[in-house]
Design brief:
The chain has 191 residues and is mostly beta strands. The chain is built from two helices and eleven strands; from the N terminus they run αββββββαβββββ. The chain has an eight-stranded antiparallel barrel. A hairpin with a 2-residue loop joins β8 and β9. The longest helix has 17 residues. The protein starts with a helix and ends with a strand.
């Protein structure tokens, strides 16, 4: 009788997790940052960030392949800490924010690489040009947040994007074509 009960409980748990849906999380923007860097003439690495973005995150802890992430970035929120450069980057020479105000990334596939690493493939759209992009994701932490006292997740996501793939080829090859994108984010389960 005990063996039957144990088997029944195990089967019910397996069934529950097989049909469990991904859970929504919300990023804590006070502890998240979307930044980028590129090589300037071989003399320096220049940094910048996007200050205004929204993200939709769904995590299936038991089956990470069912997880998803989507970013909508306000291109006009670009900040390289130098106003004249910011205005140039926002012009038609680069992001053309007047005509293309949003940058988006929508995941299409999530692969578990290890217990703490994921590979997220998706569609990156800049200036209405869409190309595949791959994010390498390090899961920094996943568990109860000690201050918020609810489920939380921390990530470091990295990707390399070729700006020429999005019609931004000014100053090539002198200014680097490859742009390193880094997102560090802390997310809490949505209520």
């Amino acid at each position: 009788m005990i063996r039957f009960a144990t088997t029944a409980v195990a089967l019910s748990l397996m069934s529950a997790s097989a049909f469990a849906a991904p859970v929504s999380y919300e990023f804590d923007k006070s502890h998240s940052n979307l930044s980028f860097s590129y090589n300037h003439l071989g003399y320096s690495i220049t940094d910048g960030r996007f200050g205004d973005w929204d993200a939709t995150l769904a995590i299936d802890a038991d089956a990470p392949e069912n997880s998803s992430v989507e970013f909508v970035i306000d291109a006009d929120s670009l900040d390289t800490f130098w106003e004249a450069r910011d205005e140039h980057f926002k012009s038609a020479d680069f992001f053309d924010v007047a005509n293309y105000p949003e940058i988006t990334f929508t995941s299409t596939e999530v692969k578990k690489v290890s217990d703490t690493e994921l590979e997220v493939t998706g569609d990156l759209t800049i200036k209405d040009i869409t190309n595949p992009a791959v994010l390498t994701v390090d899961v920094l932490s996943f568990g109860e947040h000690p201050m918020a006292e609810k489920q939380a997740a921390g990530f470091l996501m990295e990707a390399t994007v070729k700006r020429s793939d999005y019609g931004m080829d000014m100053y090539l090859p002198y200014v680097g074509d490859e742009v390193s994108v880094v997102f560090s984010g802390e997310a809490l389960i949505a209520e």
